[in-house]
Amino acid sequence: MQFERRGIRVPLRKLKHLDCGEKVSLVRRASRLYAQGINWCFSVIDHYREGLAHGSFLGSFMDYYTTQASYPLRRPVQEGDLHIDFPKVSYAELEDWEEETALGGKGPYKKLLPDRMRAAWDRANQKLVDFIVKRKGADQHLLDIVKGRKPSRWLDDLWKSKREVFCIETYLEDEDQLHLVARHLQEVAKEADEALLSLARGDKVRFTMEVLFPEAIICSIAALDELTYKEAEEKYLRGPPVHYREKELFDKTILKAARKRSAARIRAARDPPVPTP
Length: 277
Hints:
Blueprint: E1 2-4, H1 23-54, H2 61-65, H3 71-78, E2 86-88, H4 116-134, H5 139-146, H6 153-160, H7 175-189, H8 194-199, H9 204-225, H10 229-238, H11 244-270
Antiparallel strand pairs: 1-2
Helix pairs in contact: 4-7, 4-9, 5-9, 6-9, 7-9, 9-10
């Protein structure tokens, strides 16, 4: 297994709430191989929660992590004094799985099959990344937006949004591609007028990811596929294709849950609880 320092990607359905019932067990298992990384993550979270409790910081965790408030904890990692490892899985070559492989390579597992659709999707998206980052083909469009010369529905949506935690459709699924585009857009965001940033409540992270990111992808789709902006926007909103195996697994999960609920209702009707004296 290859390692990298930026983090670990997992299927969305595998995510659990931080304070879920299995937390102790999951942390114990993960700490066998990644104790230093786990401890660092929890120290950042604890520091954020303490800031909220004492009133020294107000805002989302994303706001906290991208400001000076978290820099003392981020600095050792960024400067290389603290080395943190997380497992790296090539999702361009692997299919989603139902059973989780135990740490250390032992335990039950389901063989992962090649996801050729995902690999083809990433290869096609590389053209978009090159257009945005290398050719800077979307820069003029983005500069017109950040300078207020061109309207953006994404900026309007951000201005009207009351969400503290944001979740966006990135269109790109490869982490390295996302990283390259986001880093380039951060440079473009530096040109934004203060008045425009005020519409985003001064949040450059959300402005970059919720306004510049979709605008850049849509602009590149329109240019490379020879589409109108509206047609490119519709393609962007459709997002990545859903693999038939992924759909089949989702359907099975829903059906299994429905059967469990039905069986529970039948048992409850058949064996009513005995009243206590």
